[in-house]
Every structure is written in C-alpha cells, then in structure tokens.
# Entry
Amino acid sequence: MTPPELAALREQIDQGDRELLRLLQRRVKLARQVGEVKRAQGLPIYVPEREADLLEARRAEAETLGVSPDLAEDVLRRCMRESYVQESGHSLGVRPGLRVVVVGGAGRLGRRFVQAFRESGYEVAVLERGDWDRAAELVAGAGLVLVSVPIHDTAAVIAALPPLPPGCLLADLTSVKAAPMQAMLAAHAGPVLGLHPMFGPDVLTFAKEVTVFCRGRGEPGEVDWLLEQLRLWGLRLHPAQPEEHDRHMGLIQAMRHATAYAYGLNLCREGPQLNELLALSSPIYRLELMMVGRLFAQDPELYYDIIQSQRQHLDLIRDYHATLADVIELLEGQDRDAFADRFREVQEFFGPLGEQFLGESRVMLAQSKDRVG
# Structure
C-alpha cells in the first residue's frame, strides 16, 4: 500500500505535469503563430543564432533556479523541434507562382518537395514515367525542373528531357553529383544546380537538415533564389564540388551502408533472438542495432544503387575489408601493445572531436535509454 505522504507528493507531481502540458499546448499555439509571421515576413524557419542565444539564456536561468541546465536544454530542444514541425508549411515562396516541374514527383522524396513548393505558393506539376508523351507540354513555361528519380535512372532521364525554357533552372536531388551534373550541363544550356538532400522522405520537417549543393551554370540571380528557398524551409546548405562530394559520400554513405548490410546479414545468419539481444543491450548497442535495423526496413534497391553508384566505392569497401583482416590478425596474435598503438593512432586522428563526440553521444544515449520501457 502506498504511504499517504508519498501519494500526496505524487499527486502534486501529477498536477505539475498537467500544468506543464498546458504550457506545452500554449507554446505549440505560439509556434504556429510564429510560423505565420515568418511566412508573412519571408523569414527562415530555422535561425541558428536565435536558437543558440535562447539556449544559453535559459541554461543560465535554470542554474539560478537550481534546475539542471542540461535538463532545461533537453526539454527546450525537444520543444524547439516540435516548433519547427508546427512552423513547417508556413514558408513564403521566394518566387511564388513560378512553375515548378518535379520529375519523379510521385516518389517519396519527390512528394516531399512537391508538397513544400505547393505550400510556398508555387505552381507545381509532376512528370512521371507515363507522362513522357506530354513532357514538352509539362515543362513549357517552367522556371524550375527538379529531377528526383533513382540513381541508376538519373542520367538517362535527364538526357530524355525535352528542351527547357532558356531561363529555366535545371536541378536534381541525386545522392551522387558528378555524373548527374555532367548530364544536366549537356542537356540544358541554361542554369544548372546539383542538390543532395542528406535526409530521407520520413523526416518530420526540413528544419536543420543538411543539403549539399553544387553550382553548375548560371548567374546568381538565376540560381540563388532556389538556395534561398531551401534556407527559408530551414535547410542547412553546404557547398561542394561534384567530385569532392562523391569522394566524401563514398565514406559517409557507401562504406557505412555496406558495413551495415554485412553486419545485418551476418546477424541474420547467426540467428539470435533479437528481443533477447535488445533486453541485454546497453543503450549504445541498442542504437547501433537500431541503425542496422533501420536500413533493412527500407528499400534494398536504394542502398544497392548508393553503394554501386561509383566504381571507387568498391575500392573503399575492399580497403575496409583489408583493414578488418589486419584487425583479425592482430587479435589472433594476442598483441595487446599493437592493438593499443593502433587505437592511439585513431585517437590522434579524431583529436578534439573525440571528446566532442563523447559528450554528444552521452546525450543521445540518455535519450535512447529514456524510451526503453
């Protein structure tokens, strides 16, 4: 039986939680109003300086109140994330009324951009496989043609496009950039811009997501309006050269996806009870298992295309395979000193980022542990 004094304290906590929910409801309503003002004023959803200043001020206030600044920041970051979701769909169009044609706009990622452009006041048309007999009609008068098709189809689809209006901006959303950029520059004499959204179609909001862009051709006035539109949606933009982008993506995407694929395949062959693995897992292993499981919950064709999109990706995977063989040899030799030496080499390579990642991962692990029932 619950002691009376404990029951009374729990009732006070419950009452405080209800008050907190009402405050959260008020904050959500205010966030929607903020979104409307931002749309009217043409302001971006995500302003990093504003977020950083707010968090710094609230951490200081929390400390004066005897509340953990980390707790305050955790709560506020979650509230901010919800605010960005509420504000999404309230972005002003940089060129409202402009005709936008999304090639592959019925696909999952294409649909997200179709929705975003429509919500921002653009006239949007979709060009799909069954529409090629009227492709010239669809692109007539277009100010932007955006290609969002599978990697292995991208160059061929670009080459098959009918002539575009001279001032039309041709852009793509492909996760490789060198070949699509070459195809676009060959197919269209007007402005060209390569984009790679570093996120999937399942994100709740574009805010704080990264998109890489590669300039192809065109004056700033012909190209930068689209970059400004992406900023208004809250995207973080990072410039890159196509070849540099593809080299980095080999390490960021292809090698990691291949490693996760191999780990998942090996796990499947070992045949453990996944629920038992989860029950025995520390938060960090649970996160690692989640990331592998996340891959296998998606489209295998997509990941095959990413891994196979560049010939040099196989070289990276072979190099990783050779490194793994070196580690096995080191362990078989029971060479503790050599293991520690290699460890310190990598430690030096990461430098100060190692400590930064340690701190960031602690937050992620704590959040992951909070969700375990």
Summary: The chain has a mean pLDDT of 91.
